[in-house]
Specification:
Elements: H1 30-35, H2 48-55, E1 61-64, H3 72-82, E2 90-94, H4 97-104, E3 109-113, E4 116-120, E5 128-131, H5 137-150, E6 157-160, H6 167-170, E7 184-189, H7 192-201, E8 204-207, E9 209-210, E10 215-216
Parallel strand pairs: 1-2, 2-5, 5-6, 6-7, 7-8
Antiparallel strand pairs: 3-4, 9-10
Amino acid sequence: VSSDDEVVVFHDATVSRLTQQNGKVEEMQAHELQRLTVGTSQEHIPLLQEVTALVNNRVPIFIDLKSTFFDARRDVLALARALRNYDGVYSVMSFDPRVVAWWTGERALVERVNGKKIRHRNLGNGIAGHIFHGGNVFKIYSCIIAWKLYGSPGHFLAVPLDAVHRRFFQKRRSIRGNLPATPLLTWTVKDDVQQKRAQKYADASIFDYDPRLKFSIK
């Protein structure tokens, strides 16, 4: 999210790796970001509204909201505004369990405006999932604590490929008592071997290669 609260479609927190400029995305205005070209192409960093207009509900969209701990509320509200008039199919995912809880309505997002508290419950379409950080025991228990505090991991769980086989995640793919099954996405798949692993342990994969072309997309 830019400094003037516009949602841009860009992976990194800074622009230095993918453009010829330096600076943090959150410290730049949208018009400054839109002027930058990506890599050696002539493509510019787009606003989310430009991408949704291009997609126009032809395919579902997964939106990975990247935000810092202190800016999460501002970023979620900016995302809700950016998607307000989009009727297509989309889902939000985040490493921050609060973002997932706010978007799904598990928890109200409380905003202070002129000293008054405003509670937001209905944000976008309400569909979201948690991106899991890793497979070690500490991170697993950290997520369990976060889910206890803020609610469930949402409608799906995105798990690193090297951890998706763990029983902690696999048992969530099945109905457990009154708990529904949680679909698993796994990331990041980069070749055919990894794709076979993803097909075995997950319901869908997040990839940066085209299996039809047999090589990684750079």
